Amino acid sequence: METVKISPKFQIVIPKKLRDALKLSPGQKVQMVIYDNRIEMIPLRKISEMKGFLKGIDTTVEREPDRI
User: Fold this and answer.
1) What pLDDT is attached to residue 68?
2) pLDDT at residue 48, as a whole number
3) Rounded CA gap, 24 and 14, in Å?
């Protein structure tokens, strides 16, 4: 867990360790969401970068009887 300080202009610096882990780049957009009394940041990615990210996912799920 990393700690950051909010500047007088309400800006924060994302620690290098987190930027590297998430492969964030300058100018990239993120969504900010309030969830359970906390802020979550979700990096927005180009659709072309998403190719193959679900490869190997288990798609077997129990379906409700009215959905078969």
Assistant:
1) 63
2) 79
3) 9
The type of residue at 51 is: K
Alpha helices in the chain (DSSP H): 16-22
DSSP 12: -
Round to the nearest angstrom and report the end-to-end CA distance of the chain: 43
pLDDT in tens, 10-66: 999 999 999 999 889 999 999 999 999 999 999 888 777 777 878 888 888 888 888
| CA atoms within 13 Å, Cβ hemisphere of 2 | 11
β 38-43/30-35 pair status: antiparallel
DSSP string, 16-32: HHHHHHHT--TT--EEE
Question: Which residues, in sequence order, are CB contacts of 46 under 8 Å at separation 6+?
Answer: none
